[in-house]
Amino acid sequence: QVQLVESGGGLVQAGGSLRLSCAASGRTFSMYAMGWFRQAPGKEREFVAAIRWSGGSTYYADSVKGRFTISRDNARNTVYLQMNSLKPTDTAVYYCAGYRVTIATMPDYWGRGTQVTVSS
Length: 120
Known about the structure:
Blueprint: E1 2-7, E2 10-13, E3 18-26, E4 33-39, E5 46-52, E6 58-60, E7 68-73, E8 78-83, E9 92-99, E10 109-110, E11 114-119
């Protein structure tokens, strides 16, 4: 099993920045990639970004391209999401996710989430 723990959420004004972290523990060697999803009130959970452990290829939702950057620290089994130029529409609970085989399917592991609130 893999455990994922997020940190770094909070309240920020529009145009500001936040960096989320996700620390993985357990059978981390079994993971192919990690990513971030978010869920706003009354909406479905949606993909934000993902990164492969090997090679570091990255993938982004169109809504965050150019504003968010996902990165990883393999030695620390940690993934980061740098969020810049934040908008009120970015307000959501952000979930860290782990993939065992492919990012083409839903993740195999989930964190508990961290709240991000962007005020206008």
